[in-house]
Q: What sequence folds into this?
């Protein structure tokens, strides 16, 4: 391992020189293939922390898909239904536990994950490398790679795919620094441990948390710990299904994440799963077309007369507003985490529309009473963690 690594450029091509380096000791990583850039390393180090903590908290292999220093998806290895395997395009693949976690992380928001950086909590095996190899991605970070997995990844993207190996025993200095406009900022690292011990205070009438809800709330909160704030995360079935990152208003986070969760569920509608795609259509084109199909209403001619028609063998049936509403009414038992308190009950109202039944947030708003009353209106369980998770 080296003490420093020169990079091609910084965030943008005009930002030179650029490097990563250690003030003391050696870098905790080795570049096994490719030439990762400045943003690649930001994504790699943030995503590695996320999956490392998910594995520690749940005991399950974990994976994350990062874009521009926020996760597009995060998940642990919970067995998938045949429906999920199909909408994630992995129904033809052999799935190890780690490959299952990766498929979930990548599949949650496939449009946002296009060109992502991947983090894996465990040694990358052949099954996971096989899935990574057929997606558009910038690179991967993991504690190790099997010989076959490394061979597969080294051949990806004409041999330029970025493969980083990180020392899992590395522990950073408890004080972290960064510079902004020539001024150095210093703070203690956010070492807060997220586990079930945070779920002690229940201000709502309903105080029941199922084991699945606890797991999903932990996934949501750890995901938020490494998401640009303000942020809100919807989770279900062992994975994030909607992440709203970097919004100035809390309600906009909740709406953005809720809309993504809705699209995730609508992708499982029979009409969507049976869209008459032509053979050989690329995954990215399918993802984009499905998003348009779900987003358009029955009065819009975009799908009927637009460029998307080229991907279909026949005219697809319209997915009406009434059908969407009826399908979304079945979405239930969703967990939601927020990196800071909800200032008003409008966030709970929006969350309810996407099947949220369990909420974890710090609490402490002057309008907590309004938020609690709104939860009680829908029979939700809400826990006050007392922990804020801003990340910048």
A:
């Amino acid at each position: 391992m080296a003490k420093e690594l020169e990079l091609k450029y910084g965030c943008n091509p005009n930002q030179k020189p650029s490097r990563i380096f250690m003030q003391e000791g050696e870098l905790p990583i080795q570049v096994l293939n490719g030439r990762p850039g400045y943003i690649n390393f930001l994504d790699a180090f943030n995503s590695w922390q996320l999956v490392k903590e998910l594995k520690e908290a749940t005991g399950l292999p974990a994976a994350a898909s990062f874009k521009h220093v926020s996760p597009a998806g995060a998940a642990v290895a919970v067995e998938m239904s045949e429906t999920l395997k199909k909408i994630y395009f992995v129904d033809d693949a052999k799935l190890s536990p780690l490959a299952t976690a990766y498929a979930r992380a990548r599949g949650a928001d496939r449009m946002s994950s296009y060109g992502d950086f991947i983090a894996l909590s465990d040694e990358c095996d052949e099954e996971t490398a096989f899935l990574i190899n057929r997606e558009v991605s910038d690179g991967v970070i993991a504690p190790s790679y099997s010989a076959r997995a490394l061979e597969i990844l080294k051949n990806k993207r004409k041999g330029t795919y970025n493969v980083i190996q990180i020392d899992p025993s590395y522990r950073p200095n408890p004080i972290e620094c960064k510079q902004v406009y020539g001024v150095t900022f210093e703070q203690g690292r956010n070492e807060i441990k997220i586990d079930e011990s945070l779920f002690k205070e229940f201000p709502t009438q309903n105080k029941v948390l199922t084991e699945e809800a606890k797991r999903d709330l932990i996934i949501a909160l750890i995901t938020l710990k490494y998401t640009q704030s303000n942020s809100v995360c919807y989770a279900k079935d062992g994975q994030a299904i909607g992440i709203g990152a970097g919004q100035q208003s809390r309600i906009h986070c909740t709406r953005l994440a809720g809309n993504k969760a809705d699209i995730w569920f609508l992708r499982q509608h029979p009409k969507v799963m049976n869209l008459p795609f032509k053979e050989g259509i690329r995954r990215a084109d399918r993802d984009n077309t499905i998003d348009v199909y779900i987003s358009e209403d029955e009065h819009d001619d975009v799908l009927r007369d637009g460029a998307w028609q080229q991907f279909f063998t026949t005219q697809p049936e319209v997915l009406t507003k009434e059908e969407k509403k009826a399908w979304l009414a079945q979405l239930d038992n969703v967990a939601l985490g927020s990196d800071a308190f909800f200032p008003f009950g409008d966030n709970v109202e929006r969350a309810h529309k996407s099947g949220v039944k369990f909420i974890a947030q710090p609490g402490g708003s002057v309008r907590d009473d309004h938020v609690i009353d709104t939860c009680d209106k829908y029979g939700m369980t809400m826990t006050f963690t007392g922990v804020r998770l801003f990340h910048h």
Q: What stands out?
A: The chain has three domains: 4-166, 196-265+328-384, 276-318. The domain at 196-265+328-384 is CATH 3.40.140.20 (Cytidine Deaminase; domain 2). Residues 127 and 183 are 46 Å apart (CA to CA).
